[in-house]
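REQUEST FORM: STRUCTURE PREDICTION
Request ID: SP-0412
Submitted by: Lab K.M.
Chain count: 1
Length (residues): 565
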Amino acid sequence: MCALAWRYAGGAFFLLATNAFALLIPWFLKLAVEGLQHPESSRFSPGACAVVIVFLAIGHCVTRIFSRTLILNAARFIEFRIREELFQRLLLLDLSFFSSTRTGDVLSRFSNDLTNVRMLTGFGIMSALNTFILYISAVTLLWRIHPWLTVCAVAPFPVMVLVVKKVSQRMYQRSLGAQEELARLSSLAEESVSSVRLIRSYCREEHFQALFEDVARSYLEQNLGMARLRGLIIPVMALATGAGTLVVLFLGGRLVIQGAITLGDFVAFSGYLAMLVWPTAMLGWILTLSQRGAASLSRLSEILAADSKVTDAPDALDLKEVRDSIELNQVSFSYGDTVVLADISCTIKAGERVGITGPVGSGKTTLLRLIPRLLPINDGMIVIDGHDINRISLASLRSRIGYVPQEAFLFSRSIRENVAYGDHQQAGDVAEAVRQAGFTEDVEKFHEGLETMVGEKGVALSGGQKQRLSIARALLSEPDILLLDDPLSAVDAAREEDILEELGRFYGNRTVLIVSHRLSAFRDCHRVLVLKEGRIIEQGSPVELLAQEGVFAGMHREQFESGDR
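STATUS: Completed
RESULT:
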């Protein structure tokens, strides 16, 4: 912050110098005119004045470059720091934030809103300082030439300022609305591009085109509203400056004729008044920037002020390894008023392999997400190695867990880079992890092998290949706890058998929790938990559950009698 303050201070100094050079030019024009009128009594010859004006113009040019460079570069640094803080904040926010926030909205804040803030802290501050300095200096010099003429010349300006202030209040609302509409437009565009194959499959091109047109039209109307407001400001400013110029021509001309001021004074006065025209015009632009910047800052502050419910405790300890059990004591979780998990209690021994199944919406995925603290625990407690996970540092907890989410996400990089993503030490054998995930045969078919680029979100791979690559990523980190959320849903039965066999060898003494609708995935599990409406309704070994003739046995009959493995 100190460096930024010095940049702004240096920029302000050079702005003072710039305006000093600019304000001296009309004064030397005045002396040149007086020298032409009365060469015998003039202190400066017109030629000398011309030389001085040339040097003043050069000084004005040089100092203007430095003032703009310092202030605009400071704005760039501010933009950089805000962008860094935004990204850092996004990485720390909970999953609940992203489930309620559109991706396009976040992207809009990173691009358009940050640009508005940069314009405010750069051009806005520079123009405001320049306008302030120039108004104070020019009006002082005008007053020195003729006070009454100065009052008459600048009299229309306060009326203009009042009108602009009134309009700017409405402009803020318009600007905020325009930013919101741009966020909707960005979100719709991002969603449409991501799902373009689905849109074409169902011949929904015209529907999405109509949706996009509606949102784009709403965005256009918001911007046209702002343009109309700006269009009202410009004529008001032109009227004020034009009125001032007419006053100078009429009254100033009479004062010259009467001998109250010299012709040189009249030239200098006209020059100073002309110098106020651009700052006056800039005043409306500055107000527009300030309203846009304020609207953008309010949107950015929503992210910067967002709090994560999952954070490290002040006295959080590091989990070096997992040797003991995982205990769930009356764990409950809700999304708002919707109860997802209710009073879940069980103990998972170290090295035990536990399957979790149940109807859609029974809370299986949520249960898995609670263990690495991807979601906050509303009620109850989860204990690992005798420690409440809320007292374990997030980094050490998650480093001991290998998590395969239900929806495999791949980066637009090579297969090797995607697999090695979770191995922070880069010490694991990528090829071995790929083999354990049953993905070697597929990799060998690619011309570039492990260096094959998978495309955005893994577009070059099938659903099953994405899942296996995601499994390989989790295996490479050699976790103590392995969480598999329906990892084989897109894999055919024959390939599933091979993967399960390799995973069985990998499990070893690791604690494994696997969620699946396909009961064949539980063949190596010691125990299975059956969830329904957020509660454990059955638990036991697969053999015990089959003997109970309950929900698990019913699911088993449906799948295996119908041939669905």
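NOTES: The chain has two domains: 2-304, 326-561.
Reviewed by: T.R.
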